[in-house]
């Protein structure tokens, strides 16, 4: 099927762009010996896991279901972190995961023996209390009062027996300079316990596949932890794996005026690209400009009842009209994994753009997908 023939709304992941990202990540792995696993919460399009498996060491999960998906569909190293595990899921988790990372010493004490008995690795998430991002408190695990990771004043070294690694995750869309800053805080607070560990996990939030990312500095950070403490280094990016590797194709349904020109699309910010509202950010849109840059400016919105279901203001060379197709960029990550059927909105079709340009529909959704979750 040609790209132009795909039904809308449709998430399209571009295999070639995805593989370009994977090659960049694999380069870091090859040059440093670090291990990189996919954080599935950003991108769980498991149809493409065989491609990812060629380049990455495995998967990480935010809980049992993602862990099971990684186990079933990737089948490589499988890690999991959760702020708190349930008693009734631990048997399955120790069966399918290789690294089980705990958020507190109480959880560690509760489950450690079970993990070790299963022959799996126990990790502990630490909070280096080093905020390197400003503005996005909801994305900052180091913000005051954060529930994510053990702070140094709660650290109980007498309970470290059996713990083979420390994990931190404090970054979000950041460059290697912030990683370097964070590592200094990790060493300052927790450095005395690093020599007794086997591994350290740098978490995600490393925007490694972004053009301006400082890969040599990342590699320097990795090597320093390897050389200073004899640690195996793990990274678990989500965004960087599929950054800019997908589109959301949508159709204009109507245009209206209310002081400004408005276009209603068959895709919704709140249902299909919720980070546009949560983050918030302005998604790239092909063949458009900033408001006023091109002759025709429109506010693009979704068909839900939410007044704030607005994707943003964009300008075009020609007036928009019903049936025009628009293509948003960078729509592979934090989209499919977060979408909803609020207002009874249909879920977008999922497709792959293959290397030869041909497009294949992987899955389509209908009324039953909306209904079945409601009773
Ligand atoms: C979100 C998250 C990741 C991935 O973060 P990205 O920003 O998508 O790279 C990795 N590890 C943990 C613990 C996370 O919560």
From TrEMBL:
Keyword Acetylation among UniProt keywords: no
GO molecular function, one term: lyase activity
Protein name: Carboxynorspermidine decarboxylase
Pfam families: Orn_DAP_Arg_deC
The species this protein was found in: Caldifermentibacillus hisashii
Highest rank taxon of the organism: Bacteria
The keyword Lyase is annotated on this UniProt entry: yes
Record-annotated Orn/DAP/Arg decarboxylase 2 C-terminal domain positions: 11-331
Entry cofactors: pyridoxal 5'-phosphate
Entry EC no(s): 4.1.1.96
Alphabetically ordered keywords of this record: Decarboxylase, Lyase, Pyridoxal phosphate, Spermidine biosynthesis
